[in-house]
Specification:
Blueprint lengths: L3 E8 L3 E3 L12 H12 L1 E7 H7 L1 H8 L4 H12 L2 E4 L11 E3 L4 H10 L5 E5 L1 H9 L5 E7 L7 E2 L10 E8 L5 E7 L2
Parallel strand pairs: 1-6, 1-7, 3-4, 3-6, 4-5
Antiparallel strand pairs: 2-8, 7-10, 9-10
Helix pairs in contact: 1-4, 3-4
Length: 188
């Protein structure tokens, strides 16, 4: 059965976006960017909320409209080819290659995707959608890139919902730029 993985960057104080809505502090260096690209290679599909969808839509046309370096071209091609499912209560349609609006609730969509053939993981992104997936017991792994910055508030990596979840550390690494990656598996 394919794992549902939540992978995102966070500040050292636990926010994906600062109080001003900015996340420029999470701009990856080449090493971290390649690492994130490798994570995308391990996915068969990516589930996301509206805000992350709107942010990542850039990559669907970047190769044709932006001057990209070699690593960015690789990421753009991988992202464009990756099937994506958007969960939104405000959008009636989505753009982008291999992108569709969810046609069921999150539990139904994950159950369908887990049952489908494939070896890659099911990625999930966006703090709100990930919090809902965690509340429903759908997340199997957390992959956290922690940036050495305190932003003092904003959107938390994982909004608290009053539920404790036991995790087992299964890996990690430190990058020369000061970013630490930690990989956890949910204990059930």
């Amino acid at each position: 059965m394919r794992s549902v993985t939540y992978s995102l960057s966070t500040s050292a104080d636990g926010y994906i976006v600062g109080p001003d809505g900015a996340f420029d502090w999470s701009q990856p260096d080449e090493e971290v960017f390649r690492f994130a690209t490798d994570e995308v290679r391990g996915l068969d599909v990516h589930l996301m909320g509206r805000k992350l969808y709107e942010t990542m839509l850039y990559w669907d046309t970047a190769a044709e409209t932006q001057p990209l370096d070699a690593d960015e071209r690789v990421f753009a091609a991988l992202w464009k080819d990756l099937p994506k499912v958007v969960f939104s209560t405000t959008l009636s349609e989505v753009q982008g290659a291999n992108t569709r609006l969810a046609d069921g609730d999150l539990s139904e969509e994950v159950a369908r995707l887990r049952a489908a053939s494939g070896e890659g993981n099911i990625g999930i992104g966006g703090a709100g959608l990930a919090a809902e997936a965690a509340r429903l017991g759908l997340i199997d792994e957390y992959r956290v890139r922690v940036y050495p910055v305190l932003v003092g508030g904003g959107i938390p990596y994982f909004p608290q919902q009053g539920t404790a979840t036991a995790l087992e550390r299964v890996g990690g690494r430190s990058f020369d730029c000061g970013v630490d990656f930690v990989h956890y598996r949910v204990l059930r």
